Automatic annotation (TrEMBL):
<dbReference type="InterPro" id="IPR012334">
    <property type="entry name" value="Pectin_lyas_fold"/>
</dbReference>
<feature type="signal peptide">
    <location>
        <begin position="1"/>
        <end position="21"/>
    </location>
</feature>
<dbReference type="InterPro" id="IPR011050">
    <property type="entry name" value="Pectin_lyase_fold/virulence"/>
</dbReference>
<protein>
    <recommendedName>
        <fullName>Pectate lyase domain-containing protein</fullName>
    </recommendedName>
</protein>
<keyword id="KW-0732">Signal</keyword>
Length: 195
């Protein structure tokens, strides 16, 4: 699940701006006056309120450490133990245990217990995105570090937003849920990079 390291859980369809069949008619925030959040709280509020919004990101929003960290028992998969035994500098990834323990945690094949420390912002309480929102980054400045998105509405456009640092050292450190994701021009940790 590390291929798409975004904490995005979809309750309904996500469409990216464009003229393709699945996104036809998607307007996001439409003609709403653009807003430019300057704080973590402001970004959270704009994304989750009931107003149509065009939210422009002109800076990096760094949620790392904003909700604390935790240390708990995790999983070290056999593949990771094998890599570590080679002593070639490759560290691999340990895993955060999911509900049901090691037997129910994907990626913990033949796992052994190990202590893992991770940031809670990436694993708990993702940024909720409600209906009629456009979230657009400006150039390379539209960055959200340490927290993912949870799309809870319809008519949402996400363009040129870079989502990074979701506990990259861990399996399940901020991965996407197991729901369908519509994507266009997706590269690692980036929705619709645009032209």
């Amino acid at each position: 699940m590390q291929i798409l390291r975004l904490a995005i859980v979809f309750n309904s369809a996500l469409a990216i701006q464009g003229t393709h069949a699945l996104s036809a008619g998607t307007t996001g925030g439409g003609n709403a006056n653009p807003v430019y959040p300057t704080s973590l709280a402001e970004l959270k509020n704009y994304l989750k309120d009931s107003q149509p919004r065009v939210i422009i990101l002109k800076t990096t929003f760094n949620f790392r450490g904003s909700e604390g960290t935790t240390t708990e028992t995790g999983c070290r998969p056999k593949s990771n133990r094998d890599y570590l035994a080679k002593n070639n500098g490759y560290k691999g990834q340990d895993g955060i245990l999911q509900s049901g323990g090691m037997a129910n945690t994907g990626g913990c094949v033949e796992g052994t217990s190990v202590q893992v420390t991770y940031g809670l912002a990436a694993t708990k309480n993702p940024l909720v995105v409600t209906s009629n929102k456009t979230l657009r980054g400006v150039g390379t400045s539209g960055v959200i570090k340490g927290k993912g998105l949870w799309i809870q509405g319809d008519n949402v456009i996400i363009h040129n937003v870079h989502i990074t640092q979701l506990n990259p050292h861990l399996i399940w450190g901020g991965d996407a849920g197991k729901y369908a994701v519509f994507q266009e021009n997706l590269s690692t940790l980036q929705f619709d990079s645009g032209p």
